[in-house]
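Team,

Forwarding the record for the chain on the shared tracking sheet. I've put the sequence and predicted structure together so nobody has to dig through attachments.
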Amino acid sequence: MTKNSLSATDATWTGMVPVDDTALAATDTGGSGIPVVYLNGQFATQGYWRRVIGELGPGWRHITYDERARGRKSLLSADYSFEAAVRDVDAVLAARNVERALVVGWSYGAFVAAHWASRNPDRALGAVLVEGAQPYDWLDEAMEQRIRKLFKRIGWFTRPLRPTGLVPRMSAAQQAESNIELGRIARESALGPVLDRISVPTRYVVASGASLGSRGDEQERIRASLDRVTARNPNIMISAKVASNHDKILMKDFLAVADAVRQVAAAAGPAA
């Protein structure tokens, strides 16, 4: 790895990053290694990345944060949109004085990482997209209703857990709308052009089988869309297809995710 002295810090920092009407709980390990910013699943927290970070070790500069109303400390907001999530990447990097970074995203975070890398070719060193950012038209009216019913049904028992950080401090309706918005962003007509514009080394790590809320072979049909993505854009490759499912991939196959990070850094070469 090459040095990144322009944005290096010497010690681990933990604190709050102000953005818009809120503030995000963030951690930056510092150091002169390549900055890697980790983008969480839709309702997940930065703790999900601990195995990946442990595997990569201290030679990298690891930056994690909890999105709006996620975790125990990130504050509430009037805006939980996808565009807000993309803006938050810039806010965290600016707060930590990082000009260029490698972005790693899981699930919802993979969509955020893909958009950020596509929009910022001069700032993105590369991207690792873990079990997300797969263009597929899975949202229809019936699915919208299914999502609204699901979050309404689970809302009553997740409410007491909100202060613990185990679930987001968003209402059931807000969570449902976020999920529905993601379905629109995932459509081939919306996501395909975003992926086609990525001009930095990008690697997918793909899971197997079903996940919470999916039915039958839904997940595998969605994953199959990546064949068209990689055929169109030579910057994008599939690093690994692993045995674990969508929900367990960061726990059981963190080695594959860490390896994809190394692959992207090596492909970026002197730019990193």
